[in-house]
Amino acid sequence: MSLKKILIKIMDFILLDCKQATFLVTKELEGSLTFWEKIRLKMHLLNCKFCYNFNVQNEKIDGILKATP
Ligand SMILES: [Zn+2]
Description:
- The protein is mainly alpha-helical.
- It has one domain.
- The chain contains four helices and no strands.
- It is elongated and about 55 Å long.
- It starts with a helix and ends with a helix.
- The structure holds zinc ion (ZN).
- The site of zinc ion has 6 residues, from α2 and α4.
């Protein structure tokens, strides 16, 4: 396998598509993300405004829910 192919495989593993990222954002609220899922989600949020905003919205909603007794 060439170095380029290995790099593509690694990038594929790290980078999520938006569907996977929004799924992980929702899953994060339940606090059930693994270490690698957290890393992959953070990497995606750095590159994607849409999912970044989705994450911000979700954290706000989560904050409101947690503040409500
Ligand atoms: Zn995205």
